[in-house]
């Protein structure tokens, strides 16, 4: 294995990806596997660079202005002063051939072109102490209304300006002078920012309490699910009334496990049907984009038709309520087996396909967070499928089963008003997620987190069996509410949904097409990545308005259960903790990604989720 050339903490010159310019950076770490240096620029941006893109400071020396070859303007001025000699006569009696003259002209033209390109790039990326705004892609003013696509128009600079740049920067490599593609035209120079390619290195900052924290979560999360379900089945579901533990054999039934496998397989078949459009996800670390078929809403319609057919042939969904604990145990066993399979297959995955946050080298931590970013079997994306299909659609089916169970147990001709509100609110939420399925491709779950126990358990166990807690609670603890109270709760849910949907639509539309005339009123702060940070609309109100809408809706889902017990409010309490933790993760990643631009955004939008509170 080759030894590293630069030590941690050493100040060197690093080449900015996609350009010929070198800037002063500090080495922070080195990945022995990928052979990449993590360097930090003056504005706080961290990048992974190859050793060939890093040079010592001593190799960069200013060119002396006395050298006639250092500046085209210097040569032209010397010719203008020698009036007694013909411009075509060679110096000191030496005659230049026509080919030599052409080579020198070509060389001069190439230097001028490279200089013009360098000037254009310097306007955008020069990371000096007095120019940190432009390094982060920010203009003199912090807000813009134009598009984030950077197209620079620039004509040839005067010879004097070219001389100044050539004296300060070495634009061409002294040793490996490679032929660069000409992007200069006579009138315009277009500088397109290429995405910075990062090969995932070892995860150094461990989340969720590190190895001990993730190990405890693997044990406590399943226990929490069964504790909540056992509490709901008690006549007095108070926190101090701990439920008796059931026998382990009563939690398992092979027939129930077979029904769960049938459900999972049915949703997999629906997802593979050639209906719906195919879209590309965000670029991976190697620049490749995966393709996804968007047909979640069609799968929901087909599922509804299948459930309707079962009810028509008098199939009792009460079976789901009667074996609810067994279904939870089956989902847990399946998610655990799936997590083991995912980790084993990730050991053979290429380095560039590993998750940025799940490559620590510690078994427990990587098993929990997910070692591989996008595990696929052919074109079947396991993480993307589990994110929305079996658990989310299963949540609606469980709610429907609870509604029918309430009618059967309490001999009701129609469901209670509380049950109708819970089913309606959560049905709207699920349908919205499936209708706007494409938006999930930009979430942290897809772009950053690997697919391990955390997401497998969350998608297949936590979502369907904990998010349906209010409906399960109402079956055993019916609550009567008046129509005015129901109307007030409905208004609250509509407010939360409006904030949630309009904020997400603003973000998704801006990411898809910043130049859309409909978004001309939105202002944003440009960043060095080419993306913009919205500072108007909902995203100028708080940094995560979609989280605010989510929490308001979660409260509206719990209110129909009354105030006799805190158990139905577990979801809203848990959801606030989850979103606050996720917001902290977002802050950390955005600060690393956007540098000073993110700090300016935080100054512009000081509140994170709750306005004037947090």
Automatic annotation (TrEMBL):
Which GO-annotated molecular functions does the record name?
Answer: Delta14-sterol reductase activity; DNA binding
Q: Which GO terms describe its biological process?
A: cholesterol biosynthetic process
Q: What organism is listed for this UniProt entry?
A: Dryoscopus gambensis
InterPro entries associated with the record: ERG24_DHCR-like, Lamin-B_rcpt_of_tudor, Sterol_reductase_CS, Tudor
Entry EC no(s): 1.3.1.70
Annotated transmembrane regions: 212-231, 251-275, 296-315, 327-344, 448-469, 481-500, 521-542, 562-581
Q: Where is the composition biased (Basic residues)?
A: 76-97
Q: What is its main location?
A: cytoplasm
Location of the protein in the cell:
Cytoplasm; Endoplasmic reticulum membrane; Nucleus inner membrane
Which Gene3D superfamilies did the record assign? 1.20.120.1630, 2.30.30.140
> Hey, which pathway is this one from?
Steroid biosynthesis; cholesterol biosynthesis
Q: Which family does it belong to?
A: Belongs to the ERG4/ERG24 family.
Q: Does the record's keyword annotation contain Isomerase?
A: no
- Its name, as the record gives it, is Delta(14)-sterol reductase LBR
Q: Which keywords does the record carry?
A: Cholesterol biosynthesis, Cholesterol metabolism, Cytoplasm, DNA-binding, Endoplasmic reticulum, Lipid biosynthesis, Lipid metabolism, Membrane, Nucleus, Oxidoreductase, Phosphoprotein, Receptor, Steroid biosynthesis, Steroid metabolism, Sterol biosynthesis, Sterol metabolism, Transmembrane, Transmembrane helix
Q: Where is this region: Disordered?
A: 53-110
């Amino acid at each position: 294995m080759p030894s590293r050339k630069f030590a941690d903490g050493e100040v060197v010159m690093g080449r900015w990806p996609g350009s010929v310019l070198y800037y002063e950076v500090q080495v922070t770490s080195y990945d022995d596997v990928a052979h990449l240096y993590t360097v930090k620029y003056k504005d706080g941006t961290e990048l992974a660079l190859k050793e060939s893109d890093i040079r010592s400071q001593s190799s960069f020396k200013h060119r002396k202005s006395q050298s006639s070859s250092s500046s085209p303007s210097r040569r032209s001025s010397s010719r203008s002063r020698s009036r007694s000699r013909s411009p075509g006569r060679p110096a000191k009696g030496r005659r230049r051939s026509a080919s030599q003259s052409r080579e020198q002209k070509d060389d001069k033209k190439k230097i001028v072109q490279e200089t013009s390109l360098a000037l254009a790039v310097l306007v955008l990326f020069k990371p000096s102490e007095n120019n940190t705004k432009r390094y982060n892609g920010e203009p003199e003013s912090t807000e813009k209304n134009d598009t984030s696509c950077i197209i620079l128009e620039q004509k040839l600079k005067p010879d004097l300006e070219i001389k100044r740049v050539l004296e300060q920067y070495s634009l061409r490599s002294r040793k490996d002078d490679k032929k660069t593609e000409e992007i200069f035209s006579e009138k315009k120079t277009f500088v397109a920012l290429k995405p910075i390619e990062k090969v995932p290195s070892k995860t150094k900052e461990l989340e969720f309490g590190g190895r001990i924290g993730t190990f405890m979560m693997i044990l406590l999360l399943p226990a929490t699910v069964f504790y909540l379900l056992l509490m709901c089945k008690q006549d007095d579901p108070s926190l101090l009334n701990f439920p008796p533990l059931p026998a382990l054999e009563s939690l398992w039934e092979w027939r129930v496990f077979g029904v769960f496998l049938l459900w999972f397989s049915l949703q997999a078949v629906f997802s593979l049907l050639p209906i719906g459009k195919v879209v590309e996800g965000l670029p991976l670390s190697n620049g490749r984009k995966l393709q996804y078929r968007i047909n979640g809403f069609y799968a929901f319609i087909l599922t509804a038709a299948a459930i309707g057919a079962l009810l028509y042939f008098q199939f009792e969904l009460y079976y789901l309520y009667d074996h609810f604990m067994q279904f939870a145990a089956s989902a847990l066993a399946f998610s655990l087996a799936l997590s083991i399979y995912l980790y084993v297959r990730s050991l053979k995955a290429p380095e560039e396909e590993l998750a940025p946050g799940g490559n620590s080298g510690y078994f427990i931590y990587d098993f929990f967070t997910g070692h591989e970013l996008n595990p696929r079997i052919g074109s079947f994306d396991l993480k993307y499928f589990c994110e929305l299909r079996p658990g989310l659609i299963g949540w609606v089916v469980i709610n429907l089963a609870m509604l029918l169970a309430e009618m059967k147990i309490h001999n009701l001709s129609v469901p209670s008003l509380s049950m109708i509100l819970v089913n309606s609110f959560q049905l709207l939420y699920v349908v919205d997620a499936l209708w706007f399925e494409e938006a999930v491709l930009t979430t942290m779950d897809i772009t950053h987190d690997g697919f391990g126990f955390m997401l497998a358990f969350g998608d297949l166990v936590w979502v369907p069996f904990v998010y349906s807690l209010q409906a399960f609670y109402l079956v055993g603890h019916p609550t009567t509410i008046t129509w005015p109270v129901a109307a007030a709760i409905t208004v609250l849910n509509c407010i939360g949904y409006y904030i949630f949907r309009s904020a997400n639509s603003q973000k998704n539309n801006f990411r898809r097409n910043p130049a859309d005339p409909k978004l001309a009123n939105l202002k944003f702060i440009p960043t060095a990545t080419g993306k913009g940070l919205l500072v108007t609309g909902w995203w100028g109100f708080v940094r995560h308005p979609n989280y605010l809408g989510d929490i308001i809706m979660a409260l509206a889902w719990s209110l129909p259960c009354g105030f006799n017990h805190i158990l139905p409010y577990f979801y809203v309490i848990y959801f606030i903790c989850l979103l606050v933790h996720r917001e902290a993760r977002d802050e950390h990643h955005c600060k690393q990604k956007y540098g000073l631009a993110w700090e300016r955004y935080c100054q512009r939008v000081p509140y994170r989720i709750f306005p004037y509170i947090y």
